[in-house]
Amino acid sequence: xxxxxxxxxxxxxxxxxxxxxxxxxxxxxxxxxxxxxxxxxxxxxxxxxxxxxxxxxxxxxxxxxxxxxxxxxxxxxxxxxxxxxxxxxxxxxxxxxxxxxxxxxxxxxxxxxxxxxxxxxxxxxxxxxxxxxxxxxxxxxxxxxxxxxxxxxxxxxxxxxxxxxxxxxxxxxxxxxxxxxxxxxxxxxxxxxxxxxxxxxxxxxxxxxxxxxxxxxxxxxxxxxxxxxxxxxxxxxxxxxxxxxxxxxxxxxxxxxxxxxxxxxxxxxxxxxxxxxxxxxxxxxxxxxxxxxxxxxxxxxxxxxxxxxxxxxxxxxxxxxxxxxxxxxxxxxxxxxxxxxxxxxxxxxxxxxxxxxxxxxxxxxxxxxxxxxxxxxxxxxxxxxxxxxxxxxxxxxxxxxxxxxxxxxxxxxxx
Length: 415
Description:
Elements (H helix, E strand, L loop, with lengths): L1 H5 L11 E6 L5 E6 L31 E6 L5 H10 L16 E5 L7 E5 L14 H6 L1 E9 L6 H18 L4 E7 L6 H22 L11 E5 L6 H11 L5 H15 L1 E8 L4 E5 L7 H21 L14 E5 L4 E7 L4 E8 H6 L1 H35 L8 H11 L1
Parallel strand pairs: 3-5, 3-6, 6-7, 7-8
Antiparallel strand pairs: 1-2, 2-11, 4-5, 9-10, 9-13, 11-12, 12-13
């Protein structure tokens, strides 16, 4: 620790940044240093282009995990995808046309969020459609999200029946699939009603799985994760974050990095966010996730993006990279909400007490510099693995897949 204190602290203020202090209506003091995160972040074509064309060739796409979004018609599947990955306003989803075919979306513009999303039409029976090769689709599936409309109680039986059929077929084809159930459109329900719906769907799904599993061997191997979601609050982002965590091989290593950062700097909570989608890539494991705190962090990101849209410089493609971008908000409960950019797609957000922030600011800035370097090393290792996989596929070799977890562990030791 003394070594860190004696080390020079990196200047956090960019020559392109604008610092100011504003008093909000509730008496909150906000210290902005705005740099590089424009408000027009999103997963459209302009942000999907890779810096190197070789990194975006079609062969590498087969190594990306697949997320299948399934459910009955009008359950909200397409709305979820557009709100999370395209920043569509929830009210605008009412104007979306019904999905009539399976749509593929390649999410590849964030360092860690690199996967394919399949939006399956509820009007088509995926398993009986001759134009769809569901076996090939499920073989490469990493996570299957089944959406159930919580407001349509008359469709519960059909939805749960379709869910159990999907689980049995999917598990027999690919035993590595993670099954997630989004109990959707719960906005407007009181908390007690939400839990009643949650328990009812969970119980009926388990009963139907037991009825269809004659040997009772399959039901013991399948674990369903249930989430209460709505596009009108942050619950959909929190649920999707938990889905993405299981598709990131370095997730455990990132959690350990955040744990170490919390212990060394006295942080209350720490998150690593994907700025474009507000999905948190990882969080510390010191305490359980606080939903209200997560919502506050999401609002903080929106605030920074809105202000950055005014002051931040733009490059040719509309994205400006500034490693010194940060903001600091003092809350009314003697806590600071601190946000610092890791790269142009990742941001570090933490909660720290007032007295600790004032005393350990230099140590925290120094450790954050080490944290950013460690993240970049992990990203570099991940890119190397992807390139090796592509080469092995071209050569049709049977060499084993490199273990990015070991690479991340080595980097963690250095950190």
